Amino acid sequence: MTEAAPLRHPLINGSSPTLRTLCSTLHDQITAFLSEDVPTERLRAVQSQTRTSLAIIQAALDRYECFLLNSLPSLSLSYNGGKDCLVLLILYLSLLSTHPALPASLPAIYIPPTHPFASVTAFTMESARRYHLALDVHVADEGAKGGMKEAFASYLGKHMEVEAIFVGTRRTDPHGGRLSAEGFDVTDGGWPRFMRVHPVIEWHYAEVWAVCFDFLFPTMDGFGFGFGRFRLMTV
User: Fold this and answer.
1) Residue 108 forms beta bridges with which residues?
2) pLDDT range class, residue 2, cuts 50, 70, 90
3) Residue 110 β-bridge partners
4) How far is CA 196 from CA 1, 50, 140, 160, 161, in A?
5) What digits encode the pLDDT tens for the residues 40-84?
6) Do residues 86 and 124 touch, judged by C-beta distance below 8 A?
7) 185: Cβ–Cβ under 8 A, 6 or more apart, which residues?
8) What is the pTM of this model?
């Protein structure tokens, strides 16, 4: 089997292409990966997970008529710069490559951790800029019970057009065990009402890292993002 040339992520050289160019590049790379005859069971699992996640994201785009209305006002993204969110983000962007009227940036909410690392915050803000996210920061009240709920309520009060929010929750995360495999769950338990869309719910840790390495996310102190290829993953 001939070794393919390494993928070159569109952001690796520090450039910031337009949103449409970025989406088109990611779409082409993901399509190419899905068409590969990959050599390991792990990579075949990643291909399967990718197809499932793309189907959930497409279902959300269809449900909220994002292409019919030539807009994306009803959908937002909960983004914190973590690896699960990054996988979700690149898959989401890849499906927007044919959207007829992409905005300059995509709506997103960022709720910082109570005691953030400076390097993590820097990566989150820089990656949001490069991936064209209109990142709306809402700080959870450290001393208040339900601070996260209040942060989302504040965001939704400001953006009343938002009906659904993509989240990078996986099955092994807190409360992930009770979420549906179909990828759609309305909030409950006193949370402000919106549809949680969780396309990476069934992904496993090694599969997430395989995507991170293959798409060459920039190195970040503290998280250890590096460079590599899917085929280098042997776990």
Assistant:
1) 77, 135
2) very low
3) 137
4) 41, 19, 19, 15, 15
5) 888 899 999 999 999 999 999 999 887 666 677 899 999 998 889
6) no
7) 179, 195, 196, 198
8) 0.84
